[in-house]
Every structure is written in structure tokens, then in C-alpha cells.
Amino acid sequence: MTRGALRFTEDEYRTHAAKSDRFKVGTVNRPAADTPAAPPPASGGASLTLIDALCKENGIWPPECEFRFHPRRKWRFDYSWSDVMIALEVEGGIWTQGRHTRGAGFLADMEKYNAAVLLGWRVLRTTPDKLADGVKSVRLLMLA
User: Are residues 75 and 125 in the same domain?
Assistant: First the structure.
């Protein structure tokens, strides 16, 4: 590579690729053809079971998961009761500088929640460890 240039020549690229595990077949980035595909994740997994149990405990019906509420945007609610227009958003990663607490993610969430309110939704926000409190709040909103 020449000094000050930002690109490799084709030969330099091939030499680098041959030395790097990143480009070898059978590694994480390039799995071998006979490597079985990972099974698709169960929809909701353990949290779906938990949310169902919490709803049953509080006397409300189970929510729809990943409900797309906006007519044009691909925004989705974590959990929603669309017939009464109540949504429950679970904000993860609050202690690890996750998406919801960094600048761009926080602003994107504000845009989403404001759009939801303008469409008539009531949006409750909770964290994974306070999910039971969030479901109790949903029940109170339904009774209001």
C-alpha cells in the first residue's frame, strides 16, 4: 500500500484475507455450506410466557406482541392491547448504555412515542425488572 493511500491493492487484499480468520470458510462470518442453520427464535420466548402469566394474574387478556401501530412507519410496540389502544414498551439496556439511553436512540424513541400519542395510543414505558408493575399499570388504565 502506498503511503497516504486509503485502499489496498488487490494483491494486498488477497494476502490479508488469506491470513485472516475472518474470511475463512467455517468461521462465524463465513459458515461452511454444511453448517446447519440456527433454528428461528421462538416468538417472544420466555418473556412472552412471563407477560402472559402477569396478565392472567392481573385479570387482563394477553397482549399482541410486536404490533405495528403506524400506517407508514415500521414502528412496533413491544406489547399492545390494540382494541383499547394501550401499549407497553419495555426499555432494555438502561444501565449498560443501550439504545434507549443514548442520544440518537432516545430521540428516535421520543419520535415514536409522540407519533403514537397523536394517533390516540396510551403508551406506558417500563424496564424488564419492573414488567409486573407495567402490567399492573395497564390494568389500571383499562379500568379508567
Answer: yes
The answer on pLDDT for 51 being more than 80 is: yes
125/54 Cα distance (integer angstroms): 16
| pLDDT given for residue 8 in this prediction | 58
pTM: 0.62
pLDDT mean across residues, the chain: 77
Residue 102: C-alpha distances to residues 22, 95, 111, 123, 131 (Å): 30, 11, 14, 20, 22
Sheet of strand 64-68: strand arrangement: 64-68, 76-81, 86-90, 122-126
Q: Based on the domain organization, do 18 and 54 belong to the same domain?
A: no
Yes or no: say if 18 and 10 are a contact pair by the CB < 8 Å rule.
no
